[in-house]
Specification:
With about 325 residues, the chain is mainly alpha-helical. It has twelve helices and no strands. It has helices spanning about 10-30, 35-40, 45-60, 65-70, 75-90, 100-125, 135-155, 165-185, 210-225, 235-255, 265-285, 290-315.
């Protein structure tokens, strides 16, 4: 953060939020139509499920390396190169014609998505004054969820009006904008502190395990409605909009369960739970009949768990007012 900067919404903070919005929009423009495109390209349902599972598992599995990467290399560079890698993976989808290629590309993209989301959170915190980081966390998280909402509910609709190749080009334009915004962000140098190769820091907040499970369950129910997106019924946009609005109080909850130096980890834990649930729900929704009924039941159960179990846990375990 530049010396003398005391405002929250500085040009650098605007840029990192814009880049986060564009990153999520680009990723979630393609993910909802991957199954449909896979079938048209001749892949079996099982092939597409394997690819999506690999994306999810690698997104989670790369987590313990986050702290090491952010400490060993400049955090802005980690963010930029992982974003560039995601763009290249998207372009690579145009040349995939074998199952192993699809699975390999999905695994790499999942790992890069996990790195880029966490690196972005870290950069956003680095450029925000300490006393404003709580608000900064919430705004930054909201920018990502707005990108997810726009990608899922609006831009993926372009698939009905153009072919998959053109949709990839749209996502590449979004990634170019994302890279431009990231390159303009000023991040001051931080000397390495010697973090070990595998570390839960910047990855998972143990004190937030129960809220994370609750959020993951809710996101599974919401993610299952993505199978309703091709006809674009009103159900999916409504539930995704509700999830987008809910990210602000959820971020506040997770941050209050963390100590001062763990706010980035708290945000990452929330994002990890959210993305994992959405992807698992998306995968499950493709093979379940009457998916709308089951998704609404899961959403209802998760919303009941929130006041009955999660909130009492939160009031007992929170470490800051």
């Amino acid at each position: 953060m530049k010396e003398g900067t005391h405002k929250l919404m500085t040009p650098d903070f605007w840029l990192i939020c814009i880049s986060n919005f564009l990153l999520y929009t680009a990723v979630w423009t393609l993910l909802p139509v991957m199954y449909a495109e896979g079938y048209l390209a001749g892949f079996e349902r099982l092939d597409m499920t394997r690819a999506m599972l690999l994306f999810t598992l690698c997104m989670i599995g790369i987590g313990p390396l986050h702290a090491y990467l952010g400490d060993t290399y400049r955090r802005k560079h980690v963010l930029t190169f992982s974003t560039l890698g995601l763009a290249l993976c998207a372009g690579g989808l145009l040349f995939v014609n074998q199952v192993w290629q699809l699975c390999s590309l999905s695994a790499v993209a999942g790992a890069l998505f996990g790195i880029s989301t966490t690196a972005g959170i870290t950069v956003a915190i680095d450029i925000t004054q300490s006393r404003r980081r709580g608000a900064g966390n919430r705004i930054y998280a909201f920018s990502g969820m707005m990108g997810l909402f726009c990608g899922l509910c609006f831009l993926s609709k372009l698939y009905l009006m153009m072919d998959f190749q053109q949709l990839v080009y749209v996502s590449l334009l979004l990634w170019i904008g994302c890279l431009i915004a990231e390159s303009c962000v000023y991040v001051s140098f931080r000397a390495p502190v010697g973090v070990g190769l595998l570390n839960l820091d910047r990855f998972f907040l143990p004190n937030a395990w129960l809220p994370a499970l609750n959020v993951c369950l809710l996101a599974i129910g919401v993610g299952m409605t993505t199978s309703l997106l091709p006809p674009f019924t009103m159900v999916s946009p409504i539930v995704f909009l509700a999830l987008t609005v809910g990210i602000v109080p959820l971020t506040r909850m997770f941050v209050k369960l963390s100590h001062h130096c763990q706010r980035g980890t708290a945000n990452t834990t929330l994002q990890l739970a959210m993305m994992t649930g959405l992807l698992v729900g998306m995968i499950a929704g493709e093979s379940i009949e009457n998916v709308l009924i089951l998704s609404l039941v899961i959403i209802g159960v998760s919303l009941l768990v929130l006041p009955l179990i999660t909130l009492p846990y939160f009031w007992k375990k929170r470490v800051r007012k």
